Every structure is written in structure tokens, then in C-alpha cells.
Amino acid sequence: MNEFLNNLPIQAVGLIMNTIITAILGYFFSVIRKMNIENTNNKRQSGDEGKAIKNAIRALLKDSIERKSTYLLKQGSVSKADIEILNDMNTQYKTLGGNGVVRLLIKRVEALPIYERDFYSSNNNNGNKQEG
Asked: Phi then psi for 79, rounded to 5 degrees?
């Protein structure tokens, strides 16, 4: 119980960071989608601006993957949901032209002990690690 209480601030910060990063990426993807629709209809957008936005989102995804991976490696355990999120971000990163440099970090995270993540109660069960 004491270990759980000690890890609670770390878990809260991690959850808040994930929420913020997801919101930022969602906003950027909606902007790109809107820009693509306008570009298709009006053909006004320059190719350089679109490339800059694509490169910026790729850089944000790389940074997000690196931050989340580093956080989880320091935490010493990972949930299945965290692994899925990292892999989803990596898929989009590669789709945008990422070179896969973050894959090594993700593999290290995937090797961590897995715990069950419970969003609906105040008990996160981080102390009850399961091998996976």
C-alpha cells in the first residue's frame, strides 16, 4: 500500500502528460485534415507549408515517443495500453517519414514488467505487476 501511495504522483503526472500530448497531437491532425480538404477544394496551399507541418508533426511524435518511453523506463513497469499507444504513435511516425530510430526505445519498454491499468478506480494496481 505504501509503495502504491509513493508511486501515485508519478502515475498522475504520467496520465496528465499522456492526456496533454494526445490533445496536442489530435489538434494538429485535425488542422492537417482541414488543410488537406481546403487544399483539395481550392489548390491554394503551397507544398512547402504542407511539408513543414508534416515535418513538425513527425518531430512531435518522435518527441512524444521518446518522452513516454523514458518515463516508463524510469517507472520500471508498463501497462498493455501504454505499449499499444507507443506502437500506434510509432506507426504514424513511420507513415510521416520517420526513420524508426525510436523503435529501440519501444523494444526496451516492451521488455518491462506489465501491470494492469485501471482508469475507473483510484487503485491503479501498479504494485501488482504481472509478467507478460
From this structure: -95, 160
Domain of 23, in residue numbers: 2-122
Q: pTM for the complete prediction? A: 0.58
Give me the residues paired with residue 130 across strands: 114
Adjacent-strand bridge partners of 17: none
Is 130 contained in some domain? Answer: no
What is the C-alpha separation between 44 and 115, in angstroms, rounded? 50
Q: What does the angle CA 7 – CA 117 – CA 14 come to, to the nearest 5 degrees? A: 50
- Of 60, 58, 59, 109, nearest to 83 by C-alpha is 109
Whether residue 132 lies inside any domain: the answer is no
Domain count of the chain? 1
Per-residue pLDDT of the chain (132 residues; tens, 9 = 90+): 556 556 667 777 777 888 888 888 888 888 887 777 766 665 555 667 888 899 999 999 999 999 999 999 999 999 999 999 999 999 999 999 988 789 999 999 999 999 876 655 444 545 444 444
